[in-house]
Design a protein that fits this description.
Layout lengths: L8 H7 L16 H5 L3 H12 L11 H10 L3 H24 L5 H13 L29 H16 L1 H7 L1 H21 L16 H15 L4 H20 L18 H14 L10 H12 L1 E3 L2 E2 L13 H11 L2 H11 L14 H16 L10 E4 L4 E5 L8 E6 L2 E2 L11 E5 L2 E4 L30 E3 L7 E5 L1 E7 L3 E7 L10 E11 L5 E14 L2 E7 L4 E2 L4 E5 L5 E5 L5 E9 L3 H7 L2 E9 L3 E11 L2
Antiparallel strand pairs: 1-2, 3-4, 4-5, 5-7, 6-10, 7-8, 9-15, 11-12, 12-13, 13-14, 14-21, 15-20, 16-17, 17-18, 18-21, 19-20
GO molecular function, one term: lyase activity
Protein name: Heparinase II/III family protein
Main location: other
């Protein structure tokens, strides 16, 4: 699909150029009737949070904080300060729009000035975008358009747009300065450079950066004044760049970056589409296109129960989704299952102080101005899909019963080991019982310099040895697109659903694997169970075969051939294996990283099955069931 097949520059010229954006995308500050519809409790929560920034001692961005990324590998010293500044400005802006009393204008001016005085808006982790990336500081004469620069630019554009008259009353120089900085830091680089990889005009394949950066560019473009001809030039480039993203999307709508990244992939594509839709009064839209629909539906297909999602790739099992955006997407494509997920998740909406992450003015405005209407909707059934098969992504998910989290849930993947945010995990699977995790995907630690470097696979969470796949003759899976799944099959009938995959090509030649076929079957009915069947043919006889399973529950070694897992709610899973063929043991892994402890607590467990006999060819069955 190409966006430019449906929205042309002529369409943009006819439906957007020359139109005022005042109150068109979101209610204006002076539209007191619209702001009064935001529930009073929410208004008070935002205002209270904004009051904490009155007479605020704004955090300093030190040169040494920028340098810390290159010297120590840590993103936190710089990124945490910059994120806090953006969160503060977003909060102050929303509170000022709610009150319209001018109470927050002085602190808004302070933080605007801080942003305008920053040497760079680009995060140190993204400094590789520079034409001269060797220094540990940023060159003030080279402006780099990355995710954080885009977020800062869009927020300043919204601030200038929403507070035009109040800021001009303080001083016309405030908005004029914003315009100068947006021009030199964002608009000019976007127009002049084609080598930012995320634009898609080079050889590197794009990922979520593309719709994310383009959404911020489109925000600036719509809200800032400039000559119509120049606007059209930028619109043309935005649309062509978004085409590069759509061209690499899978036909089944699957996101190889994982469900946690849905908000920054399909969710950011939605921001682009919604900006075009609202700016044109609904005339420019592609919500009826099959690919757009499938990209949106992916997120509920990966929902296990509540806030638990299938988290292959760099994802957390407890995903922090923006549920108002999910609901909006569902409304636009008229999908009640997507709307239902939005409804359910939106019940836990809170002001950003309790979320501990960067916040977006666009997404918060969607939440605030749809809150009352979503709460008033008739409740929809939970979108707990019984069977999911994504043949292009090569992911299967299945549960015992449609619409219920009760019983067994399983998900397994094929793919290749050069996916975006890749882990070496071909054939990896997870098992949940009554919507709770038992056999898991660990997720990913807090990002550091190492995460996206040539040393990525030195990180334990990226290695296949900490996923539910074999280690053969001492060799784990290797990274790279040539290390991939083959002969992936899917079968479903009334009683079973089965995924099959050939894993041999995921391992280096030195592993000596001619064939390793894995099949995973969910048996439904009176005696539900999950059956894992492994069959192998090796180059030479060996007993150096290990099978690993990762769990968040303490394994209880029971009678020979069984392992018992139980969670704090008394949910249970029993693992059966052939103890004449395998020796079972486990190790405790202590966690210290906040991104992992937030989900799993202080410990995880790696269950290890070691082959007891020398084989060259073999077949084994493992069985998982509730006790």
């Amino acid at each position: 699909m190409k966006l430019t097949d449906f929205i042309t520059i002529s369409d943009v010229e006819n439906h957007i150029i020359g139109k005022s954006m005042e109150g068109r995308i979101f209610p204006a500050r002076d539209d007191r009737e619209a702001w009064a519809r935001v529930p009073e409790a929410l208004q008070q929560a935002w205002v209270t949070q904004a009051e904490s920034y009155l007479n605020y001692e704004w955090p300093v961005l030190r040169a040494t904080a920028f340098m810390a990324y290159f010297e120590e590998g840590s993103r936190k010293p710089y990124d945490s300060v910059e994120t806090e500044r953006r969160n503060a400005l977003c909060t102050l802006l929303i509170a000022e729009c709610m009150e319209a009393k001018g109470r927050f204008l002085r602190e808004i001016t302070n933080v605007i000035w801080l942003f305008c005085e920053q040497t760079t808006w680009c995060a140190p982790a993204h400094h590789y975008l520079s034409l001269r990336p060797v220094d540990v500081l940023s060159n003030s004469e080279e402006h780099l358009f990355d995710l954080t620069a885009g977020e800062t630019a869009a927020l300043l554009a919204w601030t200038s747009h929403m507070l035009k008259s109040p800021l001009d009353q303080v001083s016309p120089l405030i908005r004029a300065r914003i315009q100068v900085e947006l021009e030199r830091r964002i608009i000019a680089p976007y127009l002049k450079r084609n080598d930012f990889w995320w634009m898609g005009f080079g050889e590197r394949e794009v990922n979520n950066w593309n719709p994310w950066c383009n959404a911020n560019m489109l925000t600036v473009l719509l809200l800032q004044e400039m000559e119509p001809e120049r606007k059209l030039m930028i619109f043309d480039k935005v649309l062509r760049s978004l085409d590069r993203y759509l061209e690499v999307q899978l036909e089944d709508g699957g996101c190889d970056e994982g469900s946690t990244y849905w908000a920054r992939a399909a969710g950011m594509l939605l921001v682009n589409l919604e900006l075009l839709y609202r700016a044109s009064d609904g005339d420019l839209q592609v919500y009826d296109q099959p690919l757009i629909r499938k990209l949106g539906q992916f997120v509920y297909k990966m929902n296990i129960d509540g806030h638990y999602f299938v988290n292959f790739a760099d994802g957390s099992a407890i995903a922090s989704q923006d549920y108002s955006m999910i609901h909006l997407y569902g409304s636009r494509i008229q999908d009640d299952q997507l709307r239902a997920l939005g409804q359910i998740g939106f019940r836990t909406y809170q002001v950003p102080a309790s979320r501990g992450k960067g916040i977006s003015f666009f997404q918060e405005m969607i939440s605030l101005h749809s809150f009352a209407s979503i709460q008033a909707e008739a409740a929809l059934a939970p979108p707990l899909v019984q069977d999911v098969w994504l043949p292009n992504l090569q992911v299967m998910a299945a549960r015992e019963s449609e619409g219920s989290s009760q019983g067994l849930f399983v998900a397994i993947k094929g793919g290749h080991n050069d996916e975006s945010h890749n882990h070496n995990d071909i054939g990896h699977f997870v098992v949940y019982v009554h919507g709770k995790p038992f056999l898991i995907d660990i997720g990913v630690e807090t990002y550091t310099q190492k995460t996206f470097s040539p040393q990525r696979y030195e990180i334990w969470t990226m290695q296949s040895g900490y996923h539910s796949v074999p280690v053969i003759n001492g060799f784990e899976q290797k990274e790279g697109r040539t290390f991939r799944a083959k002969d992936v099959t899917y079968e479903k009938n009334k009683g079973i659903v089965r995924f099959g995959v050939e894993l041999a090509s995921a391992y280096p030649t030195e592993a000596g694997v001619r064939s390793w076929h894995r099949s995973l079957t969910l048996h439904r009915g009176q005696h539900p169970a999950i059956e894992l069947r492994e069959s192998c043919l090796l180059n030479s006889p060996t007993d150096q075969v290990l099978l690993h399973l990762m769990s968040n529950q303490l394994p209880q070694m029971q009678v020979q051939g069984s392992i018992h897992l139980q969670d704090s709610d008394k949910n249970q899973l029993l693992l059966h294996y052939d103890n004449e063929q395998w020796e079972a043991a486990f190790e405790q892994i202590s966690l210290t990283d906040e991104s992992l402890t937030r989900v799993w607590g202080d410990n995880l467990y790696r269950i290890q099955f070691k082959l007891l006999h020398t084989v060259q060819q073999g077949e084994w069955v493992f069985r998982f069931a509730e006790q």
